[in-house]
């Protein structure tokens, strides 16, 4: 085996450059892996935010549907109550709602 002191300078430079290039490539690979991990984390965060927004939108739509349905049910009950009051003669025709009169007309 040849000692370091006996090798020609060109061989030493070649070995050194080979080691440096291996180190640089390994370091570049680590940097690329770190950047890929950062991108993955950012994409996960974005997907999570989109999922949360979809859930919030679904909750708002559900609340709107429930409130609208409740409103229509209350309006229908109010019309039916006025219809019953009108048919029983408890309220005069001018105080009955149009819905109650229409319901009476179609009965």
Query: What is the helix fraction of residues, given as a range?
Result: over 70%
Summed up, the domain count is 1
Average pLDDT, to the nearest integer? 78
* Category from helices, strands and their pairing: mainly alpha
Concise synopsis of the structure shown:
The chain crosses the membrane at residues 45-75. With 107 residues, the chain is mainly α.
Describe this structure as you would to a colleague.
The chain is mostly helical and 107 residues long. It has one domain. 81% of the residues lie in helices and 0% in strands. It contains two helices and no strands. The longest helix is centred in the middle third of the chain and has 79 residues, at 9-87. It is rod-shaped and about 120 Å long. The mean pLDDT is 78. The chain crosses the membrane at residues 45-75. Keywords: Membrane, Transmembrane, Transmembrane helix.
Q: Which short descriptors sum up this protein?
A:
107 residues, mainly alpha, 81% helix
Draw up the topology in text:
Elements: H1 9-87, H2 98-105
Transmembrane segments: 45-75
Keywords: Membrane, Transmembrane, Transmembrane helix
């Amino acid at each position: 085996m040849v000692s370091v002191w006996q090798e020609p300078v060109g061989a030493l430079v070649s070995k050194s450059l080979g080691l440096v290039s291996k180190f640089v490539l390994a370091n570049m690979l680590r940097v690329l892996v770190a950047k890929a991990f950062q991108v993955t984390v950012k994409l996960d965060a974005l997907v999570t935010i989109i999922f949360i927004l979809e859930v919030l939108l679904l909750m708002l739509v559900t609340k709107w549907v429930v409130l609208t349905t409740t409103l229509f049910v209350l309006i229908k009950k109010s019309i039916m109550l006025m219809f019953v009051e009108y048919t029983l003669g408890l309220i005069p025709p001018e105080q009955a709602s149009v819905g109650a009169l229409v319901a009476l007309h179609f009965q």
